[in-house]
């Protein structure tokens, strides 16, 4: 009955995914499970058997960060870092579903992720910036 979050962090050493509330309310532990955004603290690892799982570590690497990671860096979207991995995963998920979201769609896409440091403005700006970065890369 281990949680996916615990297996990711403890057994696989993928410590980018954070535990915030442990109750599925904050989004800090957000990962993609078969392309769906889920709270890994609520998923029994047996339910993830054979599934494709993407954590924040899978978004990009040092020599090629994902557009959302670069935007968070340039806009100051990460403060203490607790919510940042979940925000990044949720933002990447949103941009895959909707490459050109407006502000309302961004707010909706990040609805399940809480931040206690930023007041959200820098995070929203970062997602808008990522749309521009991704658009420039497509051109």
Description:
This protein has helices at residues 4-11, 67-75, 84-97, 103-109, 121-138, and strands at 30-33, 36-39, 53-54. The chain has 139 residues and is mostly helical. The chain contains 5 helices and 3 strands, in the order H-E-E-E-H-H-H-H. Helix 2 (67-75) crosses helix 5 (121-138). Helices cover 40% and strands 7% of the residues.
What is shown here, in short?
The protein is 40% helix and 7% strand.
State the main characteristics.
139 residues; mainly alpha; three-stranded antiparallel β-sheet; 40% helix
Question: Which blocks of ≥5 consecutive residues have pLDDT under 50?
Answer: none
The DSSP helix count reads 5
The number of strands is: 3
Radius of gyration, in Å, reads: 14 Å
Order of helices and strands: HEEEHHHH
Distance between the termini: 47 Å
Largest sheet composition: 3 strands, antiparallel
Share in helix: 40-55%
Binned strand content: 5-15%
Query: Which strand order does the major sheet show?
Result: 2-1-3
Helix/strand-derived category reads mainly alpha
CA-based shape: globular
Mean pLDDT across the residues is 95
Secondary-structure blueprint:
Layout: H1 4-11, E1 30-33, E2 36-39, E3 53-54, H2 67-75, H3 84-97, H4 103-109, H5 121-138
Antiparallel strand pairs: 1-2, 1-3
Helix pairs in contact: 2-5
């Amino acid at each position: 009955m281990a949680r996916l979050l615990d297996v990711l962090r403890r057994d696989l050493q993928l410590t980018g995914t954070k535990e915030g509330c442990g109750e599925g309310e904050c989004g800090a532990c957000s990962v993609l499970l078969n392309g769906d955004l889920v709270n890994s603290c609520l998923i029994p690892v047996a339910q993830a058997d054979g599934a494709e799982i993407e954590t924040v570590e899978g978004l990009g690497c040092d020599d090629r960060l994902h557009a959302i990671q670069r935007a968070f860096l340039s806009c100051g979207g990460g403060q203490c870092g607790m919510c940042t991995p979940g925000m990044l995963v949720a933002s990447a998920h949103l941009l895959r579903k909707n490459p050109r979201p407006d502000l309302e769609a961004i707010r909706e896409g990040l609805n399940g992720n809480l931040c206690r440091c930023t007041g959200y403005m820098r995070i929203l700006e970062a997602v808008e910036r990522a749309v521009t970065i991704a658009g420039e890369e497509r051109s």
